[in-house]
Amino acid sequence: MLVSSHQGSFMAKIIDGKSLALSLRENVAEQAADFSDETGIAPTLAVVLIGEDPASQIYVGRKLAACRKAGINSIEHRLAVDTTQEELLTLIDRLNADDCVHGILVQLPLPPGLNANELLNRIDPAKDVDGFHPVNVGRLSTGTEGLIPCTPLGCMMLLETVVEDFRGMQAVVIGKSNIVGKPVALLLLERECTVTVTHILTRDLDRIVRAADIIVVAAGSPGLVRGSWIKPGAIIIDVGINRITNERGETYIVGDACSEELSHAGAYTPVPGGVGPMTVACLLSNTMKAARHQYRALAPMPVDQEAVSSN
Ligand code: NAD
Known about the structure:
By secondary structure, the protein is α/β, with parallel strands linked by helices. The chain is built from 10 helices and 13 strands. It has helices at 17-39, 54-70, 85-97, 116-122, 134-141, 150-160, 181-190, 205-210, 275-298, 303-310; strands at residues 5-6, 9-10, 13-14, 44-50, 73-79, 103-106, 170-174, 194-198, 214-217, 235-238, 242-245, 251-254, 267-268. The strands form 4 sheets. Strands 3-13-10-9-7-8 form a 6-stranded parallel β-sheet. Strand 1 (5-6) and strand 2 (9-10) form a beta hairpin. The longest helix has 24 residues, at 275-298. The chain is globular, with a radius of gyration of 21 Å. The termini are far apart. Residues 3-8 have low confidence and may be disordered. Nicotinamide-adenine-dinucleotide binds next to helix 9.
């Protein structure tokens, strides 16, 4: 494990998600340029946003801007709040059938009355850049190649900057959602950590966390993880994004861990500037991966292989 020490005691390293995300985005931009030169087509992401939810508008805006910077073509489908399930399924079918579209993202949450699972399950798994389709969930759980949800993928990349060898490490995941907790637990297990998944009804959470070398917290509960829960040298990946308003009416963002109490940790991710930037960078990376796979699948077979298969 790579950690900094200071006068015999630990001085926590702050894992810089912003700069890691920037280098991933630069890397994707190079891949996108090479792909376009080689194939004559631009990697393309279709983004579907239904309704006027302000947070969703901001997230979609950031994703589209990131695509533009990386040379990934994006197609926006901004739909009215009263769009029906049938209309959305028809749109997804159309995007699935369109060879110029390599990734499809439906921004969640959906307005009330729409069935998110049915929509997500309709996306072609090869274009499922969020990694939420049951086929990709199955691939992740069996350790086979697929599209991995962006935030968990980002968590692992951040961990890789401070962990050389995951094997045998004790990892505790706080939160068991399908989009963060469960997939991150599977990824840690795949790296041969010993993984404990905890949730709102877990008893003695502090005792469980005290045994951990790695803690990934995705609870949406500001300041849940206290410094006294953290073993010296442990690594904390803080996924939480909590909007807090102080007595002067100012709004700011905090994570799920008390960052001011983590000086004895080995390393931790700040909020903001930790996991958040990695999520968008991983979306670009997944879009690039999807584009490459689909191009390969659609590319004409080399002549000698064509001859073999027609015999
Ligand atoms: P969720 O509400 O779907 O799941 C929260 C999980 O945490 C549940 O399993 C719940 O049982 C558990 N939990 C809640 N309070 C707890 C407590 N006090 N003790 C133990 N477990 C507790 O949330 P989610 O979608 O997984 O998101 C979690 C957090 O991560 C939120 O703050 C969200 O905004 C943030 N998030 C950040 C990113 C990013 O890009 N940085 C991406 C997704 C989610």
